[in-house]
Amino acid sequence: MLEQIKHPNDIKSINPKDYRLLAKEIRKFLLLNVSRTGGHLASNLGAVELTMALHLTMDFPKDQLVFDVGHQSYVHKILTGRMEGFKSLRQYGGMSGFPKRTESDCDAFHSGHSSTSIGVALGLAQARDLKGTDETIVAVLGDGALSGGMAYEALNNMARLREKKQKLIVVLNDNKMSISENVGGMSGYLNRVRSKKEYVDFKGNIEKSLMQIPLVGEPIAKGLKKSKDSIKQLFVPGMMFEDMGITYIGPIDGHNVPLLVETFERAKKLDEPIILHVVTKKGKGYKFAEQDPSRFHGVNPFNVRTGKALKSGGGLSYTDIFSETVTALAQEDPEIVAVTAAMPEGTGLSKFRERFPERFFDVGIAEQHAVAFCAGMAAKGLKPVAAVYSTFLQRAYDQLLHDVGIGRLNMLIGVDRSGLVGADGETHQGIFDVTYLSSIPNFTVMAPINGKELKEMVTCALKEFDGPVAVKYSRGSASNLFEEQYTPLKKGKGCILKQGLDIALIPLGNMMEEGILVYEELIKDGYTPTLVNPRFVKPLDEELICSLMDRHRLIVTMEEGVLNGGFGQQVTQILTEHDYKGRIRNIGIDDRFVEHGSVGELRKMLGLDSASMTHKIKEWIGDKA
Ligand SMILES: Cc1ncc(C[n+]2csc(CCOP(=O)(O)OP(=O)(O)O)c2C)c(N)n1
Ligand SMILES: CC(=O)[C@@H](O)[C@H](O)COP(=O)(O)O
Ligand SMILES: [Mg+2]
C-alpha cells in the first residue's frame, strides 16, 4: 500500500476500504525509521489518520497545511513523497524533523516553536483573499499549543473573517497531552467538552445531524449562534469559540478516516472561520508509546520490541545538575519556587515537582507568562526559578526586560539547551541567548565550564541574589573539565586556568571542551598559550581581560553563539577601549541560522571544532612560537 505513495496526492488513489491498512503501514514505517534515527514519535503515531484525511481532502501543493510546532509532520512528509528522507531524518544534510518550505513545496511554512500556526495560517488566508485565489488553508495545532498565548492572539483576530465570509480551518488535535500531561484552564475545558456525559450522548446526535445536513453544521451553527441559553452552553461544546465568532465543530474521533474526510469536505464548503476539534491518542498503535506518551514524545534510537533506548544516556547532564541543585536548595529555603513552560521533564524540574508540588508550577507552553508570573512572585519576596530552553526563552525577551530587568527582581533563569542542540535544527539552536540577555540592564549572566561550576553558580544566585540571574548551560552530559582546580565564584570575576604567553584563549562556557583541545595542540606545536575561563558574560571581568593585554599578541574568544552582540564582541570592546595593540579574533557563529545535524558535525561546519580553531590561530599568530 505505502509503496503506491510516491508523490503528493497519491493517497487519493487508495481504495477507502484500505485506509485502515494504510494507517497500519504508516505506523510501521514510523516505528521502523524513528527507532533507527531518533526523532518525534508519539505525536506522529497519533496524527496518522488525521493527516491521511487532510491529504484525502486537500490538493497539494496548491492547498496549504500549516503545522503547529511541526514535530507531528512526519506523516505529511510520508504522504508527500519524502519516505526516502527518513533514512537521514534530522541528520546533517538530511531531512528536517520539522516542516520547511525549502524542503518541499508541500510545506506551507516552517515551524518548530509552538502556537504560531493559527497566526501564520491567518496571514496566508488573508493574502489568498487579497490576491483572489481559492486554495484551502488549514492549520493543525495540538491541545498543548493551544496553551500558548499566540494562539489566542490569532483566534481573536481570526474571528473577523466571518463578516467577510473568509475561509480558514483550524484543526485542534486534542490528545490531552503536551509533552507531559496538558495543563491549564483550556485543557480542563477541552476535557469537559470531551467527557461530559450529557454531551457524549448529545455528541452522537450532533454528529448524525451534521451528516444529514447538506452543509456541515451550517443550520446548527446559525441556530447555536442565536441561542446562548445555558442549556446550550451546558451541552454544546465550543461555545467559547462560537462566542468569539468562530464556528466550532466537534469533538470528533481523530482516528476515523471516513468521518474526518466527511467533516473536512463539509467544513471546506463553509465560508467562515472554523475550529474543528478532533480527539486523538498520542502514541496510538505502539503500546509503549500509548502507555508513556511523554517518554516517547522525543526519542533517541530505541529497540521497537522492548521500547528501550539503544544507548543509555551519558553521565549527569547539566539539566540534572541544575534541577538537583535547585531542589536541594529548596529543601532549606521555602521561598524557592520553580516554574516551567510545559517542559518539566526536559528541564528536569519534574524532580522539584516530586519534592515540592505546592511550590512547582507548570504554566503550559507560555514562556512569556512564565517570566511575568515569576516577576510577580519575586516582587513579593519569593525566589522564583524558571528553567526554559534558550530558544524558547526568546519568546519572553520583553518579559525579561520589562517585567524583571527594570524592577531588578530576584529570579534565577536556567537557560537550558544553550548553544547548539543539533538534531532539532534552525528553530531550536540556542545560539542567541548571550546577545539577548546581555542587552538587559541589571541582569547577571553566567556560563559554567563544568557541572561543579553550574552547581556553584546556581547556589550563589539563590543564596546571594542581587537582581536577576541567568545561567546558561548546554544540552547533554556535563563536562568535568578543571573541576579539580575549582576556585570560589566571585561576581563578575573570571579565572586563569593556564598561565602562558603570546596567545590568550577565552572559551565561553561549553566551548571549553574545544578550547582545551586547542590549548593542547598549541602546546604540542611549541606555543605556551594562556587559557582563561571567563565565567561571566555580564558583568564581564574587565580587570582580567585588560591584564592579558601586555603579554599576549593575540587574544581569541570562542563562543557557541552568534557573534553579533555576542561575548567576543563585548570582550573586543573592552580591549579596544583600553588601546590593546595586539590582534583580537572572535570565533563564533556568523549572522546565520544553523540547520540540523549532530553538534560535532555542526561545530565542524561552523569552524568551532578544535582542529579548525587551531588552524586559524596558527595563521593569526603568524610566525612560529
Ligand atoms: C514556544 C515553545 N515552547 C516549548 C516547545 C516544546 N514543545 C514541543 S512540542 C510540545 C508539546 C506540544 O503539545 P501539543 O501541541 O498538544 O502537540 P502533541 O505533541 O500533543 O501532538 C512542546 C511543549 C516548543 N516547541 N515551542
Ligand atoms: C518539538 C520540541 O520542541 C521539543 O520536543 C524539543 O524537540 C525537545 O528538545 P530536547 O530533546 O532537547 O528536550
Ligand atoms: Mg497534545
TrEMBL record:
Cofactor: thiamine diphosphate; Mg(2+)
GO BP term (any one): isopentenyl diphosphate biosynthetic process, methylerythritol 4-phosphate pathway
The record's free-text note on cofactor binding: Binds 1 thiamine pyrophosphate per subunit.
Domain Transketolase-like pyrimidine-binding: 316-481
Signal sequence, start to end: none
Enzyme class: transferase
Binding of Mg(2+), residues: 143, 175
UniProt pathway: Metabolic intermediate biosynthesis; 1-deoxy-D-xylulose 5-phosphate biosynthesis; 1-deoxy-D-xylulose 5-phosphate from D-glyceraldehyde 3-phosphate and pyruvate: step 1/1
Cellular component, GO annotation: cytosol
GO MF term list: 1-deoxy-D-xylulose-5-phosphate synthase activity; magnesium ion binding; thiamine pyrophosphate binding
Reaction catalysed by this enzyme: D-glyceraldehyde 3-phosphate + pyruvate + H(+) = 1-deoxy-D-xylulose 5-phosphate + CO2
Function text: Catalyzes the acyloin condensation reaction between C atoms 2 and 3 of pyruvate and glyceraldehyde 3-phosphate to yield 1-deoxy-D-xylulose-5-phosphate (DXP).
NCBIfam families named among the record's database cross-references: dxs, PRK05444.2-2
PANTHER family per the UniProt record, alphabetical: 1-D-DEOXYXYLULOSE 5-PHOSPHATE SYNTHASE-RELATED, 1-DEOXY-D-XYLULOSE-5-PHOSPHATE SYNTHASE, CHLOROPLASTIC
Family recorded in the similarity comment: Belongs to the transketolase family. DXPS subfamily.
Identification of the protein by name: 1-deoxy-D-xylulose-5-phosphate synthase
Species this protein is from: Anaerostipes rhamnosivorans
Gene name tied to this protein: dxs
